[in-house]
Amino acid sequence: QVHLAESGGGLVQPGGSLRLSCAASGFTSSINSMSWYRQAPGKERELIATISSTGVITNYADSVKGRFTISRDNAKNTVYLQMNSLKPEDTAVYYCNARTYFQGNFDHWGQGTQVTVSS
User: Fold this and answer.
1) How far apart are CA 9 and CA 35, in angstroms?
2) Residue 107, Cβ neighbours under 10 Å: how many?
3) What is the mean pLDDT of the chain?
4) C-alpha span between 10 and 102 (Å, rounded)
5) CB 39 within 8 A of CB 92
6) Dist CA 30 CA 32 (whole Å)
7) What is the DSSP string of 77-91?
8) Residues 38/46, Cβ–Cβ less than 8 Å
9) Half-sphere exposure for 107 (CA within 13 Å, toward CB)
């Protein structure tokens, strides 16, 4: 099984920055792409960034494009989300996702980390 643990969330003022980390453990060799999602109260979970297995290909939601950067360090089994120029509308619980393809296609989720952007 794959286990994910997010960290780095917290309270930040508008215009500030945070760096989220997601450490994977377990059967990490089965992980292909990794993603960050977020979910605000009363809203559906939103895909905001995805990175390919090698880190060469990345994709972002329009709402975060140019402000957020996803990266991964496969040697550390960790994916990061650098968040700059944060806005109040970025406030949400941020979840790490790992997609695996070994013996089927599965999505693995962390418990989430709260990001609050407020003045």
Assistant:
1) 16
2) 11
3) 96
4) 34
5) yes
6) 6
7) TEEEEEE-S--GGG-
8) yes
9) 9
Q: Name the residue type at position 52.
A: S
Placement of tokens 């960790």 in the chain: 78
CA distance linking residue 92 with residue 106, whole number of Å:
24
Neighbour tally for 118: CB within 10 Å: 10
Query: pLDDT at position 102, please?
Result: 87
Q: What is the pLDDT of residues 45-77, one digit of tens each?
A: 999 999 999 899 999 999 999 999 999 998 989
- Name which of 61, 43, 53, 45 is nearest 77 in CA terms: 53
Asked whether 108 and 2 are in contact (CB, 8 A), the reply is: yes
What stretch of H or E contains 5?
Answer: strand 2-7
Q: Given this model, what pLDDT does residue 21 score?
A: 98
Mean pLDDT of the 84-111 span: 95
Read off the DSSP letter of residue 61.
-
Answer for the pair 111, 17: CB distance below 8 angstroms, yes or no. Answer: no
Tokens found for residue 30: 């089965």
